[in-house]
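Re: the 444-residue chain
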Amino acid sequence: MALLTLALAPAAAGAAGTFYARGGGGNGGASCALGDECTLPEAVKKANEAGDGSRVVLVPGPDFNPNKELMVEGEIDIGGEAGAPRPKVVGQDGVEVALRLTDGAEIHDVDVVAGSGSAALRLLDGSGERITATSTSPGEPACEFEEVAALSDSVCHAANGDALVVFGFFELVRNVDAIGGRNGIVVGGQTGIGNEFAAWDTIAVGGPGFSDVVAETPDKNHVGEIGMHGSDYDSVDEGAHPGAVPITPPGAEGGVTAAPQFVDPAGGNFHQLSTSPTVDAGEVFEKESELDLDRNPRKLTAHPTCGGSPAGQIDIGAYEYVPPAPDCSPPVSPVSPAPIAAAAPPAPGTTLKKAKIDSDKGTASFTFAGSGSVTGFACELTRPKPKGAKASKARKPRKPKFVPCKSPRTYMHLAPGKYTFEVEAQGPGGADPTPAKHKFRIQR
């Protein structure tokens, strides 16, 4: 099986050192120094030789695909670095153990994906924090504990198996998402061996037909306790011997039973929505986490204000809900609209009421009136052209030349010819754009 395992073994002696590994075959380096990164097996080998206190740094980049069991001997720290993307270790199909850590080893800031037919993460007398462990094989768990182990700010997601399976003396988890296709958390043991499991601010979710928290009791002599504090789960199963390993009832010890709300659980995104009952719902614990799985600070208030928001209560689960920043820009003063100018009155109308033409005397008299707001009139009489004048082909239309006038308007001593009389009413709205017009002829 392709497992990421922490197991107990004696540490190698030597001077502690830091060794850098890069996925995809490394850089071909031999020193495993920064800039000369080697493969993960080579970095683990050098850390074993250096002994307790050594570090194996997984540099982000191509996935790590160890093709054989790797034994990390001693109290060695292995994982990604703060501020860098989490590296990914992918277990190989058919390999029993991809990575085995022993004797108080610590693993952190890593994504672990199980190979076919295997679990993803095993802790044996070791600890882990800020880890995602994913298994998809039928019946295989995502995370396994043995002996004494601890896990915090992490996700154990088994699509077709139990999320977290525990066998040992004392195990502790805090701010863990245990999301199973079968059961969420399963705590078991052997006859005559006590088992104590404690979970703080943890989410346990089982699949349809299964339970969130389960105690496996081989017989009534198996004793233990499963303490769930400030956690979210709503179904338990105490096995064939109820009471041998009692489980904290759902909703007790500060817990909640409403289903957590995740961004995209089907896609493996277990960040919380703002409406999740797990937000600001955790319990105070003497060893509370300071950073969540994304290295965001814990105890973020879900409702920040511009005046300086107080710290909130820790969230249940691996991720702290990070609310959007409030809009603290100063308010914009309303701008008064510009005054609307009064609409100009319409131009007046003009009516030619009577035209009296006397050809024998050479006179023409016109009576007219206006409508609307009228302040006066202007008239123009277009006279005939002198005899012998030639018309210009390019001549522009003549613009009338109106002069002030009153009704009636009389013209005398008119020479024979064709005339045009025009009159326009004038007022505050301007002149009538369509003056009244009358054409006539003087014949003598």
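The mean pLDDT is 86.
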